[in-house]
Amino acid sequence: MIGDSLTVGPFGDQIEAWLLQNLGPNRVAVYAACGSSPEHWLSSHKNFISSCGYRETTTQRHILEEYQHGHRPAPVSTPKIETLMARYRPQIVIVQLGTNHYDSLLKDGKNSLPQLAAIYEAFANAVYSPGGSTRMVIWITPPDSSKFPKWVEDEVDHLITSTNQRYGFYTFLSRRYTHYVAGKTGSDGVHYNDAAAASWAAPVIRMLDTTFTRHRVKN
Q1: Is residue 184 a contact partner of residue 153, using CB atoms and an 8 Å limit?
Q2: pLDDT tens by residue, 34-75
Q3: Is 198 exposed, middle or buried (0-12, 13-18, 19+ CB in 10 A)?
Q4: What pTM did the predictor assign?
Q5: Which residue range is the domain that position 37 belongs to?
């Protein structure tokens, strides 16, 4: 699983726990970097240092860097997806990315859409190629946000879903199951508190349970 700050946080706690319980620790690797977008994981992009949070759970080590008592987490270099794919040769890749493109799209406007589309295309090529180990890609789109206008959320969802359709990836549309209420869901309009993250994770876990069960039965 690859994610951004939402996977570093309580949503990631929920999904990681389900993966470890249902697949076992020897079959799971979770990486998440706060502030990251798909391009930051690509070897063609310069090294991205996450200074606001990082999660890594593998058989070799467990790292969880978060804000503690007002102190910033230690900076961590974001790994490259090509390296992770070669190391693990995963059959299933779960992606939770796209949230940080809200900022870039709002700043740069719709003229940046072709460049963003090329990024998603490059990322899709990195996680899936005919004859490779990957048999399934599940992309969890960003949940609802109260900080950004609807057109920004719509455009990022479209970038993800249109790429996924071309590659045959499964898309979980998080905004169908989430509604951000400032002061209740969280404090910044983007990040979800424990209770809201659990409510978002619940339908994701139901989807994963159904999808993984079908995968096991078929194979």
Answers
A1: no
A2: 999 999 999 999 999 999 999 999 999 999 998 876 788 999
A3: middle
A4: 0.95
A5: 2-218
Q: What angle do CA 205, 82, 127 make, to 5 degrees?
A: 45
Number of independent structural domains in the chain: 1
φ, ψ of residue 186 to 5 degrees: the values are 180, -170
Bridge partners of residue 64, in order along the sequence: 55
- Which pLDDT score is estimated for 213? 76
- Residue 68 near residue 20 (C-beta atoms within 8 A): no
CATH code of the domain containing 182? 3.40.50.1110
Dist. CA 86–CA 132, nearest whole Å = 10
183: its two tokens? 């002061």
pLDDT at 217 over 90: no
Amino acid at 50: S
Structure tokens at 176: 């169908």
Its sign, for the CA torsion 193, 7, 160, 43, is positive
Give the amino acid at 187. Answer: S
**H-type alpha helices, 128-193:** 150-167
Instruction: Judge whether 25 and 72 are in contact, CB under 8 Å.
Output: no
d(CA 183, CA 33): 25
Type of residue numbered 168: G
Strands (E), the chain: 2-3, 30-33, 49-50, 54-57, 62-65, 76-77, 92-96, 136-140, 170-172
Q: Which two tokens stand for residue 94?
A: 């779960």
Does residue 216 have a pLDDT over 70?
no
